[in-house]
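Priority: medium. Attachment 1 of 2:
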């Protein structure tokens, strides 16, 4: 009596079961994958990708922990037709639109990712549940690590900012501070950059030591430099009113710019073995394809400067590449199972 396993794929699905054939001599292993694509993360990149894939009639599940990076801000800018919108409202609108194309949206956190393109991927959701899928798109964003200074975290995204393209126009011509953070080159560049929005900019080097040349270049553009350790951002009436130094001085300011350390939320990708570049960021090709077949990544998780519109664009690009990848597989399997009589 012989017994062997055969994996059978039916069109877009791989079917799983262990039916025993009539004469019980052959076991056919059938694997059912729940979806074509699981999108992990539902910010601008993930929602856009899910929309493109849903409109392409793919079976898609999006799993999102619901903490997009810009959530602390009351308003978003630089996204035509949504300029000034509440980020939460934009997310709600986008989720409704995506659901209209048959995409399943689950609230939850993915805690594990395993598998291969050949066998399919298993997506482990925290609090139980595993989803199986032909391909994965990771759009989990990044974490902004701020310097440990009292008051910074409380006002992050409102009058403690990092990106003048997002919120610089709203604080134009007002007293601005730039804090030297752990991200030295970013901070020094920021001090020069925000000068474009106001002629009243104070740079607090805090724990970084600018070179003479860097100091000269800042002063030449009218940026004031105030030395000393910053101990606190002074808040009054729930808003920034100044920057306090260790010697007790308070420099009145209305807005503080700071350079966070950008930490990609890429554990799912690295645990699968995705290659990283020299800076430790997961390497992707221009379509978002990682080094692991069947796994794509888009948005801030692989591209820290990406704004909402870039993250959305990267999500769209990855979705189209992913769909082409699945299509190539669909064609191959259809040809392999075609007996030539049709
Ligand atoms: C304070 C602030 C204000 C900003 N304002 C603007 C602005 O006005 N205009 C602009 O263009 N850009 C703005 N940005 C930048 C903008 O936030 C990013 O461009 C954008 O969020 C990137 O989108 P994303 O989809 O890559 O990641 P995100 O929007 O961060 O989305 C990632 C999603 O994945 C989820 N997630 C993470 N891990 C998991 C997991 N394991 N399982 C399931 N889900 C997970 C997160 O909860 C989150 O919902 C701002 C950034 C900050 C910090």
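Attachment 2 of 2:
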């Amino acid at each position: 009596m012989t017994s062997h396993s055969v994996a059978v794929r039916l069109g877009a699905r791989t079917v799983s079961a262990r039916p025993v054939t009539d004469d019980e001599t052959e076991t056919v292993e059938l694997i059912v994958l729940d979806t074509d694509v699981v999108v992990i993360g539902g910010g601008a990149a993930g929602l856009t990708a899910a929309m493109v894939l849903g409109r392409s009639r793919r079976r898609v599940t999006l799993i999102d922990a619901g903490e997009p990076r810009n959530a602390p801000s009351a308003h978003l800018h630089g996204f035509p037709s949504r300029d000034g919108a509440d980020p939460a409202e934009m997310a709600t609108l986008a989720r409704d639109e995506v659901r209209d194309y048959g995409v399943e949206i689950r609230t939850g956190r993915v805690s594990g990712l395993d598998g291969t393109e050949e066998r399919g991927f298993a997506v482990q959701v925290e609090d139980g549940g595993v989803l199986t899928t032909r391909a994965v798109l990771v759009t989990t964003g990044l974490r902004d690590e701020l310097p440990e200074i009292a008051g910074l975290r409380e006002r992050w995204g409102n009058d403690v900012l990092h990106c003048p393209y997002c919120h610089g126009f709203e604080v134009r011509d007002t007293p601005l501070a730039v804090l030297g953070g752990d991200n030295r080159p970013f901070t020094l560049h920021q001090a020069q950059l925000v000068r474009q929005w106001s002629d009243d900019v104070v740079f607090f080097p805090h724990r970084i030591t600018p070179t003479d040349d860097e100091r000269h270049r800042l002063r030449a553009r009218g940026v004031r430099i105030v030395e000393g350790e910053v101990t606190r951002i002074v808040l009054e009436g729930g808003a920034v009113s100044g920057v306090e130094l260790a010697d007790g001085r308070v420099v009145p300011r209305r807005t503080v710019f700071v350079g966070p350390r950008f930490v990609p939320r890429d554990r799912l990708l690295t645990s699968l073995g995705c290659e990283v570049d020299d800076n430790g960021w997961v390497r992707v090709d221009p379509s978002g394809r990682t080094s692991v077949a069947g796994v794509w990544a888009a948005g801030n998780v692989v591209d820290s400067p990406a704004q909402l519109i870039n993250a959305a664009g990267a999500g769209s690009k990855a979705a189209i590449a992913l769909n082409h990848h699945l299509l190539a597989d669909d064609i191959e399997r259809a040809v392999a199972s075609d007996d030539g009589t049709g």
